[in-house]
Write a structure and sequence with these properties.
Layout: H1 9-15, H2 17-30, H3 37-50, E1 54-58, H4 61-71, E2 79-83, H5 88-96, E3 100-104, E4 106-107, E5 112-113, H6 118-121, E6 126-129, H7 141-148, E7 154-158, E8 166-167, E9 170-171, E10 178-182, E11 196-200, H8 203-212, E12 217-219, E13 222-223, H9 234-265, E14 279-280, E15 286-289, H10 293-302, H11 332-340, E16 341-344, H12 352-369
Helix pairs in contact: 2-9, 3-9, 4-5, 4-8, 9-12
The structure holds pyridoxal-5'-phosphate.
The site of pyridoxal-5'-phosphate has 15 residues, from helix 4 and helix 5.
């Protein structure tokens, strides 16, 4: 029995190997490794892809969020609203600015921040809201932007799981003042190491991120403001430039494979992902829900099918975040999701037969369980 892994990055490399090897060799032969021509070209190309005027390459998605918040002036004594159901990175980035994270529960259909709850958590100190387009599904941006309206609150999209997704025909990253992307290797657009980007239509915000990512240097060795070191490197930029050319076709493939899951799992008890009519989902993850999730996961593992849980422990219940002061029961939808969600394999290199097999095994499990 051949295993079905949760990700196929080696296969992806094989599929475009000559181009990637060429890009890597080009950087090594040139001998320039930090903030050079590859980064500048990638920033232009990625901005164009997102439909914005500026992209700034940085060292990770976490730091992209941190720098985006810092560029908006977020710091100590400020509060930033974020969903309770997200990668811990979202909250770590808020705390890295010195600001205090205020969490809100999610809408269980989209798995994204529930805008109806914003009014309850916003205070005079709220400076920013981070909608996370989780699993490739855009958050309900219209309601979030209606809420922030004329208030002095920045909206910082976390697009780390949604490269190429769109909402009302606009790409994520272009829907608010400023946005952050991760290029962690497993993302829809992934580097061969860490990487990230901040995108914005506001040239002043972009300029601030450019300064902040390198010690606040306007000119070399002279810090005009206090910054950090968070630079995208030339090797990663060259790799990302190659992969960016394939991102649309990879996302099409993800959606096609997701359609097959929808078709084959339609009449089961699993809760399947929502594809909101206002959005184009890019299925970074295909997340299903079932009360017997752990048993289903163990069964699939025995059958050689790898799955993951994004995420098994909500941020507010993790030991390091006890300081936020939340208890069990604070965010019922997030807590229910963390008990029942399961990410099935979904990536462009997977084939249809593998999806058919996964669905057969799931159905066998569900039948035995009835
Ligand atoms: C939703 C979300 N936000 C932020 C991040 C942080 O990105 P990185 O791992 O590149 O720091 C990730 C990825 O891990 C993520 O999934």
């Amino acid at each position: 029995m051949s295993e079905i892994p949760i990700i196929g990055l080696n296969k992806q490399y094989e599929s475009i190997r000559p181009e990637l090897d060429g890009a890597i060799a080009r950087v090594l032969e040139k001998g320039s490794f930090i903030l050079g021509a590859e980064v500048a070209a990638f920033e232009r190309e990625f901005a164009e892809f997102c439909g914005v005027s500026n992209a700034v390459g940085v060292a990770s998605g976490t730091e992209a969020l941190q720098l985006a918040l810092m560029a908006c002036g977020v710091g100590e004594n400020d509060e930033v609203i974020a969903p309770a159901h997200t990668a811990v990175a979202t909250i770590a980035a808020v705390e890295a600015t010195g600001a205090h994270p205020r969490l809100v529960d999610i809408d269980l259909a989209r798995y994204t921040l529930d805008p109806d709850l914003l009014q309850q958590v916003a205070t005079q100190r709220t400076r920013a809201i981070i909608p996370v387009h989780l699993y490739g599904c855009p958050a309900d941006m219209r309601s979030i932007l209606e809420f922030t309206g004329r208030k002095n609150i920045f909206v910082v999209e976390d697009c780390s799981q949604a490269h190429g997704a769109s909402y009302e025909n606009l790409k994520v990253g272009s829907l608010s003042e400023i946005a952050a992307f991760s290029f962690y290797p497993t993302k829809n657009l992934g580097a061969f190491g860490d990487g990230g980007a901040v995108v914005t239509n506001d040239p002043a915000l972009a300029e601030r991120v450019r300064l902040l990512r390198q010690y606040g240097w306007k000119e070399h060795y002279i810090s005009s403001i206090k910054g950090i070191n968070s630079r995208l490197d030339e090797l990663q930029a060259a790799i990302l430039r190659v992969k960016l050319n394939y991102l649309d076709q990879w996302n099409v493939r993800r959606r096609k494979l997701a359609d097959l899951y929808f078709e084959l799992l339609a009449d089961t008890e699993l809760v399947l992902p929502l594809q909101p009519e206002d959005s184009k989902h890019v299925f970074h993850q295909f997340v299903v829900r079932h009360p017997q999730r752990d048993a289903l996961r163990a069964f699939l593992k025995e059958q050689g099918i790898q799955t993951l849980i994004h995420y098994p422990a909500p941020v507010h219940l993790q030991p390091a975040y006890a300081n936020l002061g939340y208890l069990i029961g604070s965010f019922p939808n997030t807590e229910l999701a963390s008990r029942e969600i399961l990410s099935l394999p979904l990536y462009p290199e997977l084939n249809e037969q593998q999806i058919v097999l996964i669905c057969e095994k799931i159905k066998a499990f569900l039948k035995s369980f009835r």
